[in-house]
Amino acid sequence: MTVFLKKILHTNWSLILAGGVPCLILFLIYLAQGVFPFGDSSLLTVDLGQQYVDFYTYYRNTLLGDPTSFFYSFSKAIGGDMLGLWAYYLTSPFNLILLLFPARLITLGITVLTLTKISLAGLSFGILLKKAFNGKGFYLATFSTSYALMGYTIVNQLNIMWLDGLIFLPLVILGIEKLVFEKRGLFYTVFLALLLIANYYIAYMICLFSILYFIFRLTAIQFPSKTTVKEKVIFLSKQLARFSWHSLLGGGLASILLVPTFHALLDSKASYSDFSFEWKFAFPIQEMISKLYIGAFNFDQMPDGYPNLFIGSLALICFISFLFSRAFPIRERLMAFLIVLFLVVSMDLKAFNIVWHGFQYPIWYPYRFSFVLCFFMILNGYRAFIKLERLSIPGMLLVVVSTTAAAFYMLKHPFDFVYHEQIILTSLFIAIVTFLLIVKPKYTLWLPFLLFLVSAVEMGINAQLDLSRLSYVSNSEFLEYRREFAPVIDHIKEKDDGFYRVEKTFLRSKNDSFQFDYPSVTHFSSTFEKEVPTLFGHLGFPVGNGFIAYSNATLATDALFGIKYYVAENNGLYEKSQDDLVDPATGQTPLAKNKLTELTQKNNPTNLTQLQLTIMATKPDLRSYTKLTNTDRMTTFKNQNALSIAYGVDKDILKVKELTNQPVQLQETILKALSPNEKKRYFTPIAFNSTVYQNITPNNQYPNPTFFKQIANNKASVDFQFTPQTNDAYYLTLGPSVKEEDAAFYLNGKKLSQYKTYRDTLILNIANQQKGQTITITVELKKESLWLEQFQLYHFDTTAFEKVVTNLKQNELNIEKFGNTYFKGTATITDENKILMTTIPYSKGWRISIDGKKVPTTKVLNSLLAAPIAKGTHNIEISYQTPYFKIGLFISFISLILLVLTNWLFHRGKRHKHF
After folding, report:
1. Which has the closest alpha carbon to 46: 165, 157, 203?
2. Coil, strand, or helix at residue 860?
3. Fewest C-beta atoms under 10 Å: which of 259, 504, 745, 869?
């Protein structure tokens, strides 16, 4: 065994360095930054902290607990197909590493996963160099380290699912090398399929680049001098046919995932923007020079920055040398230049850029395909370096002149992410590398190691600078939130094993429901079906492309969408005694307060007062719900009016059309459709009793008044007061033009909590159970003027609403069995002409059977699943099958057979010399 290991180390030590050194460098950086377990920091930042960490916990729960949630989950808003989410975020084979870590150590698992992926990126690049270009020794390790730690990798390590593309790209390119020069397609097909499965989004970009690389490598083929044009055309046609066939087989093998994902994309990511070509440049193309410098990054580069192009001094100089090297055919160098030019223009020209991003402009993280340009430059830089005896005098002059010109340009046109020290440091490394390339023939023994050391240090410095310019969630903060909230959810599940939804007045992320495994509404992902946030936006909630924040509910939406339990942060509650935890019906405490408090203290013996929860909503409506339990930080409420997942309603619901920026009117219309015999109004607009202005000149054009400051730069505010005449709920609408930077809102002197990002008119909960109490809403101007769009107060008739709920409960589905993909139960429908309305998003995958017979499904509110149902008692089954999954499976099976057959014919033809 020892001899065997020694042999492996002796023959593969350069590959070990290629994978090990990037891992070691990042490990040391994490150590210096105090990343857990070496400190209290973590890698959780931006989307990794707000999306992916919750999805990874869901990943563990699915594989270790409930596999049916692989296809569908009610943790995804009010329900959603999960195969598309898996394909975008979770199908990396390397995610299995996360199963080694318990949920409470998921941050450590993410750190290990990140190190592993970046290490494998270096290793795969080293394998490409070794197998296709005779790479070996420190030179192989040097360029592999440059690839693994290039600027794109470091900046996007938080988008951890994209790193799979960096791992598989060299292997796909190695497959193309085998395809072109050995006529072997199996390797290419297999790794193309794995790439498509691991992350189809980055795979799409690699597929586009693979076409360019295939064409590029055809230029390297040397034909015998006597080869005719016809023979060349035939040969190249066969190459193209072989490449196309194996590309199709690779896509076919991945169809089990790609086909249903493509269908899901049409309802989600692909539906959020209207595609159009813009033949405009995004920025002056010369500004891309700024991204070739060490540490050329800051936070502002993530939402709207330049392409990440840093590859290190050695790779950059050697690629430039490649373009001028006579060791390569002029046609090959010319093609390389054209490819680089095309990629550079693609990043700047909006029409090309949108094609690379799947015909949809990226939201944050622009130029996500820039890694293919970096790869191309590093690879050909290595090829040039191997054939470079020494850097010539003209080459040296070109480097000096280019470096000097770039430095002067950077000094004359400063960028906020590149300081003078970075310009000097980059120039210094270029000078050192240039000198080493000049003396290359004289010092062949120690030069490989020295170049490796210099490059590793340079890449390490860049990584440290880039990562230090981001802020991260502390590990203790993440753990404290888990320790505080998990027992609350577990306690709810322990007491109620039925189907219901849970919401909160606070959040850590919009995917807490995935982190703690419960049905909810709040959600954020790139694969979110468009119709659901559209509906909730029209109902008065903050929504956007790919997210819902269930922060602006009414008693009506809570009931209709089955929000049975609420968890509130105690500091965000209305002002009442924390001992007020008595059920008014019984005079008793429904659940033991001490038991739950002890449970949280047992799981979290540390002091929790440092945990700062983000309050998402002010919700006086909680007074209408029954208090159940509380901990030191959280109180749980039960909504007795929460309805089942499905209930019988009048056919009038089919006539309801969504109204834009009229949430109260839409909810009123829905309630009237649910109870057509009830003639009362549910939401009634009312006026404020008084309005007090301070340093304000109003125009009083209510409900859309405009206020102007009388004295600029002085404090200005408006107090709106009213006294509720009932204990019903009161709501206030606020148009989308009013943003946080325009005004601050206070309710009875306390900051009115509100989720910040929204695009539709909101409904704010102002009062409940406060008859005779003066309610004051203060609006404080932050600018010289303020337009209060759709600023209208409403009274909600709770008594009339509860009659609707009582009627709906008589017609609701009594669930007997349920899972992520099915519901079984009975319902008694009391009248004719009814529709079985569900709060499940409409999808072709859902089927409804009534009394054993499949019935046609339809949409209500342009988004929810429904079906006709007759009067009487019925057995109802609602089930889900992922659309096009079976078709994808069939295509994958056929592709596998064709691949085996193709490979057999290749080996058979090779034996007979005629394939």
Report:
1. 157
2. strand
3. 745
